[in-house]
Amino acid sequence: MERSGRLPVREPQLMALPPLGQLGPALRQLRRLRGLRQRQLAELTGFARSRVSQYERGRTDPTVSSLWCHLDALGASLSDLERIMREREADLEEAERERESVGRLVDWLLDH
Predict the structure, then answer these.
(1) 80 vs 77: CA distance, rounded Å
(2) CA-CA distance, 87 to 20, in Å (whole number)?
(3) Helix, strand or coil for residue 16?
(4) Separation between Cα atoms, residue 20 and residue 37, nearest integer Å
(5) How far is CA 102 from CA 95, 97, 109, 110, in A?
(6) Which residue of 19, 22, 31, 88 has the fewest C-beta atoms within 10 A of its own C-beta?
């Protein structure tokens, strides 16, 4: 069997972006970890400061190319963003469990 010398073609991996509103807080946290203000990040990315703010507040999701630009300016990788999002999700789940525990305690105290 003759080899053509070409590399095998791999199907592109599609990146699943999180739902609207979940990406922004993670981007804000990354920016703050880097010690940058929104204005500084805007200068690094070439975006308007209002656009950076909209992304961080979850008002608008960035396009994939805007997200890459954002991450590049922050010196961060997609893995960094994913890690922060997982940590935030775990923190939210923990807070929800604590809130439920407090609610049960209040109910018990009111009944006794």
Answers:
(1) 5
(2) 18
(3) coil
(4) 22
(5) 11, 9, 10, 12
(6) 19
21 Cβ contact list (under 8 Å, min separation 6): 58
Distance CA 85, CA 106 (A): 31
Taking the C-alpha atoms of residue 31 and residue 62, their distance in angstroms, rounded to an integer, is 15
* 80 pLDDT more than 60: yes
| Residue 71: DSSP 8-state | H
Closest to 46 in 3D by CA, of 73, 18, 77: 73
> How sure is the predictor about 2, in pLDDT bands with cuts at 50, 70 and 90?
very low
Domain regions of the chain by residue span: 23-111
Average pLDDT over residues 63-70: 91
- Looking at the whole model, is its pTM more than 0.70? no
CATH topology of domain 23-111: 434 Repressor (Amino-terminal Domain) (1.10.260)
Token match 């961080």: residue?
56
Structure tokens at 64: 């994939």
- Are 97 and 89 in contact, with CB atoms under 8 Å apart? no
